[in-house]
Amino acid sequence: MGFNRRDFVKLSTSGLALAGAAPWITALAADAQLGPAALPQGALESSLLDTLPGKVALIKKTYRPPNFETPTAYFNEAFTPNDAFFVRYHLAGIPQVDAARWKLTVGGEAAEKSFELNLDALKREFEPIEIAAVCQCSGNRRGLSIPHVPGVEWGYGAMGNAKWKGARLKDVLARAGLKKDAVEVVYDGADGPALDKTPDFVKSLPVWKALDENALLAYEMNGEPLPHWNGYPVRLVVPGWTATYWMKHITSIQAVSKPYNGFWMEKAYRIPKGKFAIVDRFISQETEANTPITEMVTNSLITNLQDGASLPAGKAAVVRGIAWDGGFGIRTVDVSIDGGATWRPADLGADLGRFSWRQWTYAIPAPQAGSYMVMAKATNAIGASQAFDLVFNPAGYHNNVVQRLKVQVA
Amino acid sequence: MKTIVLLTLLMAASAFADESAIKLKEGAGRDLVEKDCVACHSLDYIPMNSPFLDRKGWEASVTKMIKAMGAPIAAEDVPGLVDYLVRNYGKP
Fold first, then answer.
1. Do B41 and A193 touch (CB under 8 A)?
2. Mutate to test the interface with A, among B48, B62, B73, B85 (most CBs of A within 10 A)
3. Please, which residues 45-84 of chain B have a Cβ atom closer than 8 Å to chain A?
4. Which whole-number Å values give the CA distances from B80 to B24, B45, B49, in the listed order?
5. pLDDT of A147-189, one tens digit each?
6. How many domains is chain B built from?
7. ipTM for the complex?
8. A103-136+156-292: CATH superfamily
9. Residue A209 near residue A241, CB atoms below 8 Å
């Protein structure tokens, strides 16, 4: 069932849309938006809250393939509920995978042998590992690009944080035995295009990253089987790197001796060289001009205030948010309430691991009446911080521009 | 594989019933868009990407669908498609 924006506001003020949710969710929903006002006008007008089977109402960007964004209010929780986790597909052929019949084929020209694994074998024959990690679409916040660029016009919600449990990719690759000339590991999922001529969504990782002890073939998310829309029964989890590498419904892993040149590696998901402070390189895929996107840039989000919010004067207030990066870990979050003139450190919440986001709070004891500009800026363990000005790139990736929220205290 | 994909599409069509509620603006060429674009994606991709693409931008999008994504769009349809997109969903 679909709601337009006005219906949503009506419903949520009466507490129906997010019944049973934590109080801060309903409080926020009262003036809920389908994304920041800076999104393309057509993107705001064509989005609405709608419900995929097994999910709560999310912000519908497109129906087919399904692209649904998580409303900001859910990011007040350390881990994003599975049924509120964002959904992103490139291609519309999405089968319901039967876990009892699911198989993973492992091999390739640069592997000593090939074999198949079923779900039981993956769970029983390999040590289970659990890691908290942010899964963020490369194009999260694309809709805030200036000028706008084509693509799914995401606001802030093409991301989530979860505990992922599964087998290490390196342990599965060890059984295949990588040859010395292995350059990349190429992998595919069960979903496919509507037309045979459309390039299937196939991705690769450099061998060094595929052998990273944190890369998992995950069969659990927050202690439950993965939701269908998030890759059931098994997806690849590449902590620190953007979600384009986190193949859903994974069915095949092949070690290869030459760089993989499929569309989704050679043409898509590329960033201009030299524009971003990136550490991880994907050298076999680099060209003169560009390189595949790799780890996430340092970023933060204010989760309990929206642009245009109002707060009561003289009453203690708290700014709440999250901060994350490409896996080095968050060192500090600084908050300004005067448009960036002065900054003070926020209090960091529990450290849930360097790939997880870190919650933070900033207390404003007794704000005086007036207009405030609230900003938050995270810095990671290697000193990389957020951009104040957009680093424009044609696909709208890596948007980590510091937010500026106007808040009225009266 | 083809059969699987077709079956999946049929399932998808019933699962995403609300897609039928998407109404593009009336105008010459809307029939072309409805014929040529829906095999692979719902039509909300068009308003979502508006109104910021100029003629060059919409031409590039249509070309990408044909060249990169293999959309079976007849060459004679292209000018009408682009005209419709520019007129109704183009940069003002």
1. no
2. B48
3. 45, 47-53, 57, 60-61, 68-72
4. 15, 18, 18
5. 999 999 999 999 999 999 999 999 999 999 999 999 999 999 9
6. 1
7. 0.91
8. Oxidoreductase, molybdopterin-binding domain (3.90.420.10)
9. yes
